[in-house]
Amino acid sequence: MENFTERKAPAGLYDPRFEHDNCGIGAVVDIKGRKTHKTIDDALQIVEHLEHRAGKDAEGKTGDGVGILLQIGHKFFKKAAEEAAGGSQPAPQKPSMRDRVREILEGNAANNAKPVVSNKPTPAN
Questions:
Q1: CA distance 99 to 61
Q2: Cβ proximity of 55 and 44 under 8 Å
Q3: Using one digit for the tens of pLDDT, what is the confidence trace for 38-64?
Q4: What local confidence, expressed as pLDDT, does residue 18 receive?
């Protein structure tokens, strides 16, 4: 994938006259709806080159949860959901309440014969 920010001349829908610094998004699609690794690779290239908000902070040290959104086929997702489940649950700050939420989630997993594979805190400052 080309790095359009280094282009000096217009190309397709890109025109350097409209280039400016601010936060934004990148979008990659296959207009015919094909699902390919190239689409994902191109999306990851955008993520790697974001210079602002989503890619990294002003000091270049941290980001705030940048990612890619992609379509998962129903047939694949249904099969995967039969084998395992995934989720993200914000936890209360109070340790006793956090422990109770964890107990409830682990109990629900056990009731559905699903193991809890990972349970890790989300870093916060």
A1: 32
A2: no
A3: 999 998 888 777 665 455 566 666 666
A4: 80
Point out the catalytic residue in the list 1, 11, 23, 70. 23
Find the mean pLDDT for residues 90-117: 86
Q: Give the count of alpha carbons within 13 A of 123, CB side only.
A: 4
- Distant-in-sequence, close-in-space partners of 66: CB < 8 Å, separation ≥ 6: 47, 50, 54, 55
Is 23 one of the catalytic residues? yes
Q: Which two tokens stand for residue 57?
A: 């902070």
Q: CA 78, 44, 4 angle in degrees (round to 5)?
A: 140
Question: Cβ(106)–Cβ(90) under 8 Å?
Answer: no
Using CA atoms, how far residue 26 sits from 52, 79, 104, 117, in Å, is: 12, 31, 39, 33
What is the predicted pLDDT for the residue at 6? Answer: 65
Q: What is the pTM of this model?
A: 0.44
Are 30 and 39 within 8 A, CB to CB? yes
